[in-house]
Amino acid sequence: MLEVEDVHTRYGHIEALKGVSLEVRRGEIVTIIGANGAGKSTLLMTICGNPRASAGRILFEGEDITELPTYEIVRRGISQAPEGRRIFPRMTVLENLQMGAVPNGGRYFEEDVEQVFELFPRLRERQHQRGGTLSGGEQQMLCIGRALMARPKLLLLDEPSLGLAPMLVRQIFHSIVEINRTRGLTILLVEQNAYQALRIAHRGYVLATGQIVMEGTSAQLLADPEVRAAYLEGGH
Predict the structure, then answer these.
(1) pTM as predicted
(2) Bond before 51 cis per omega within 30 degrees
(3) Is 116 among the domain residues?
(4) Which of 44, 56, 74, 189 has the highest CB neighbour number within 10 Å of its CB?
């Protein structure tokens, strides 16, 4: 479904991605793990067209989307739940979800919002509450729900567990698995909680200083001594 071919991305004179290549097959959960500053968020943003890749190609369902504007990439079927959530704090939960439905003209709004509320019942309870007054976990649910409202074929999740309590982390990861299992939605997940990410993913890539340094099935990466030592706190 998604092919990233030798992609380079720059911020001025700084090269953040140095020839990244990976693929995501239809129906998979694929995770990218790595330390802070490795380029994980830059990779997801480059897939969405901002910043633009300085070299290489990004193919989605066989089409080269490297030079497309972000709104056209979203219309092709890629949605992102960004790091830091970036909800509209003065808008209500329902209004945030309406914004997510803009790419498809809101044609399926009632059906889609009901599916989001089934996935995240807390949002139904808070639907008339302003986004900025929600807890961190509720804001993350809203961020994911807003991305789902565009009816994506590929969902990009950037650090969905960041700053959440352990109980909410488990809930968010359970929801990711549910989205993949029940809807068949393909997911590319960037996550610092490497253990939880690899537990739910089918395959994974390790990104270090802007380059892919390792890849494999989740089981292979979980068992790899280098991965365990560097990203899994010695395996615990």
Answers:
(1) 0.92
(2) yes
(3) no
(4) 189
